[in-house]
Amino acid sequence: MNSPKFAGDPLVAVRNLRVSFRLDRQTTFDAVKGISFDIPRNSTVALVGESGSGKSVTSLAMLGLLPPENSIIDPASEILFGGRNILGLSMGELRKLRGAEISMIFQEPMTSLNPVFTVGWQLEEVLRLHVGLSGKAARKRSVEVLREVGIPEPERRIDAYPSQLSGGQQQRVMIAMAIACEPQLLIADEPTTALDVTIQKQILDLIADLQKRRQMSVLFITHDLAVVGEIADYVVVMRNGEIREQGPAKDVFEHPKDTYTKALLRCRPQLERRPARLPVIDDYMHGSGPKHTEERRRGVAPGDAIVLDVKNLGKSFYSREGLFGKREFKAVKDVSFRLPKGKTLGLVGESGSGKTTVGLTLMRLHEATTGEAYFEGKDLLSMSPKEFMAYKRRIQIIFQNPYASLNPRFTVGQILVEPMQIHGIGDSAQARTDMAFELLDKVGLPEVSFYKYPHEFSGGQRQRIAIARCLTMRPDILICDESVSALDVSVQAQVLNLLQDLQDEYGLSYIFISHDLAVVKYISDEVMVMNEGEIVEIANSDEIYRDPKKPYTKRLLASIPKGWQGARAAD
Amino acid sequence: MATDLAALRGTRAPTAREIPHTVSPGLWTLAWRRLRSDTVGMVSLVIVAAFILMMILSGAGLIASDWNREVGVNYAPPTFLGEEATATAPASITLPGAGNAAGATQYKSNIVDPIGDVIEALKAGKTPGEAASTGTLPPPETAEEKSVDPLAEVMADIRKSEASKAAAKPVERKATLPFGGDKWGRDVLKKTIKGSETSIFVGLAAATLATFLGTVFGAIAGYFGKWVDDAFNWFYSVFSSIPYLLLILAVAAVLQQKGIFTVILILGLTGWTGVFRLMRAEYLKHKSREYVQAADAIGASNARRMFLHIFPNVSHVVLVQLSILVVGFIKAEVILSFLGFGVPVDVVSWGSMLNEAQNELILGKWWQLVAATTAMAILVTAFSLFTDALRDALDPKLKGRAGA
């Protein structure tokens, strides 16, 4: 581990970096356990790992941004930047280094830009502080940089406030601020995770382009190997604060040596294949490899029984304008589809396409403006709330964020028993408790979970609890609203496997809403593409990915990160 | 789907009792653990608890129930000053009757008799019976002229009964008292204890009332939004646009009678606004959280979502607000009583003690003032520190962030 293999005189050399955090007086937590790697000049190094792997801590240490009050950096650690140890620099020296020679882009452009200053003001501030430009010169340079990162009409946009720009443009502004002083190292911490797939593609292209043009080095931090495959020269794989594998991208992707790297490469759904079960990390770490290799067949046939028939669904939101005026915003326009029993309908689209609104409207968490949804011959949307109560449990939803969708003050037992109480399922408290235990077992959680609180579980486990809560009501339809998007790749595979098992066992129908096209492709029988509240295309999932009919679908599919193999095939 | 239920029930799961488990610490347990490691918080909690215990004991009549008895000489100085210290005490202004207060044997002459003054005045002025008919001032009567003074007989009776009482049970009046004595020779220590009963009870009860009103209104306004929110906001704006003291005086005027419960009502009805704003904001924030949407999805009713799901998640805010209000209302009661709008004359509170003290201070009798203010200062400071510690212990933002 102590012999980085990259050739030449590196720009940054990390040696034996060891960082721990003080949790309370007695306990500390080792976040990074003595790692060493190099960032060569004029290259892109990807630092890959799941949450808790220590990748972000490493990048913060490089900028001297770790909170001094609770972080401990081992005195033997070194981060050499052009021969100087960053860890030994004073605050003043660090400040000079940051922005001028090392700069950083963060995950959330919305929160990284100051909302009360114009884009131009914030850019000029960087130039003023680090280059000493001011007035007209700073403004001229700002416009140039904005043009370089691909902001249309930079002369006009320079006076815009961050809120007047789209998410993709905000991230471009962040990049502009980061490169304004021509740094030698750009640290990008998950810069595309919060963005739509089409914008992700643009930003990745921009970063790759800037790297080449400016001859700088990029440290690209991400959890997504597919993204890494497209842009990285070198890959460093981290897990639990240790480096599992590092080397040139070609070696890591084509001949991964470490079992964890192998597992990570396999457990993400791939576009070409659809195994009956996705391989999970444990298959590799504790076993001899993936167990199920046969393919699963997906797709709908014209004769399939229909469980939900949605016709002309529309939803408008109104915002107040002026004193009495109202402005209508049509989130969903005239959407019709049929959900076959026991099948999965994938719903894809960029943010703002109305896909989540469709799900919430069907559950009547939002009231629909127009349209009908027939379930067992009755229109769910027009019946009275009292009547709907009987149907409420039949359609259930699993939300995106498992950290937010469970009440933190309820034990898992209370969470599971409550819906049964409300709907009068089970004859007695004992019967309900028994069923809760049964379901915990079904979703793969130990029985003691019954007595614990949600905060004691990891993200994947919490999503299992949320799934178990839905199952207590024995629903016919399950709406998964970005249900696996917030999870790590390995955990995502486990939850997807669980969802498929439940579908096989209970014949559940899923409406699977996601922006992740690879996941949707994997789990769906039929895919519906939405844009600006309208259906663009609806077809069998294999078909739509093989032969998209509409230009929008084509564009969407073209922006899926292809990973190492895809990128290599293109060469 | 009925078959699935049968399938789920087919095999009996272990019941709740069979599984060995440790109950995970909930939020309150964790908060208590954090609070216990906070030295300042614990010390202040002990002080507050001591005051509340004092209040309960006093309310039950176990201590300080005889606060109204005149056990010392009037203006008996605190014990540590000693008897003769009176002369050297800052009593530079000498008034008749004040100088020889120390002599326990001379107490009879030192008693300030309000009726005696009236009698004196009557004697000096006119006698109701004859003054009207003759129009001339009668000569000063002697005690023997019983026919002239209509009250003379009554007074003689009173004097006689008092004399017999004194003879039967000679009252031993103390020259000094631990915290000193007041104008009537009542023990200031006991008055302070009895006063704490009123002040703390008023503070706790009024804060509970105000917090209850503010929470319910805020929950309804924030949760339902739309016109309900508008209505409550209008109500709130009207309430908060009236100057605070004027509002209190208006409510006091409407309620007509004086008493502890009136004070509680006044403070409770006027103090809910701050809690309302805060709870409304909390409910606005929480109602769009995913866990509340999830509760909606499983069919939980509005009331269930408001009070079973959201309330436990905002209850720490309520608790902190409650303790802030207690401090504020203890002070408010003192101010009201000081101004004379508070508790009635026959009830002692720290406020009424301060009210009395303003006259005594002219005489250099500072101990009642010091006793009441010190007690209040200790309680209010301890309560404020406890509130801070409570907020730190309950603030979920500090939780689990260290290793993130």
Structural overview:
The complex is a heterodimer of chains A (571) and B (404). Chain A has 22 helices and 21 strands. Chain A starts with 11 loop residues before the first strand and ends with a helix. The longest helix of chain B has 38 residues, at 302-339. Chain B folds into 2 domains: 30-66 and 186-398, MetI-like fold (Orthogonal Bundle); 114-171, no CATH class. Chain B is mainly α and 404 residues long. Helix content of chain B is 64%, strand content 0%. Classes of the chains: A alpha/beta (571), B mainly alpha (404).
Considering the chains and any ligands shown, give keywords for the structure.
heterodimer; A: alpha/beta; Rossmann fold; disordered N terminus; B: mainly alpha; MetI-like fold; 17 helices; disordered C terminus
Portion in beta strands of chain A: 15-25%
What does the main sheet of chain B amount to?
none
Tally of strands of chain A: 21
CATH C-level category of one domain in chain A: Alpha Beta
Summarize the entry for a quick read.
The complex is a heterodimer of chains A (571) and B (404). Chain A is an alpha/beta fold.
Topology:
The complex is a heterodimer of chains A (571) and B (404).
Chain A: E1 12-22, E2 28-39, E3 44-48, H1 55-63, E4 71-73, E5 78-81, E6 84-85, H2 91-100, E7 102-105, H3 109-112, H4 119-130, H5 135-148, H6 154-157, H7 167-179, E8 185-189, H8 197-214, E9 217-222, H9 225-231, E10 234-239, E11 242-248, H10 249-254, H11 259-267, H12 281-285, E12 306-321, E13 325-340, E14 344-348, H13 355-362, E15 370-375, E16 378-379, H14 385-392, E17 395-398, H15 412-423, H16 429-442, H17 459-471, E18 477-481, H18 489-506, E19 509-514, H19 517-523, E20 526-531, E21 534-540, H20 541-546, H21 551-558, H22 563-570
Parallel strand pairs in A: 3-9, 3-10, 7-8, 8-9, 14-19, 14-20, 17-18, 18-19
Antiparallel strand pairs in A: 1-2, 1-4, 1-5, 5-6, 10-11, 12-13, 12-15, 15-16, 20-21
Chain B: H1 2-10, H2 27-36, H3 39-59, H4 85-88, H5 107-110, H6 114-124, H7 128-134, H8 152-168, H9 188-224, H10 226-241, H11 244-255, H12 260-270, H13 273-287, H14 290-297, H15 302-339, H16 350-360, H17 367-394
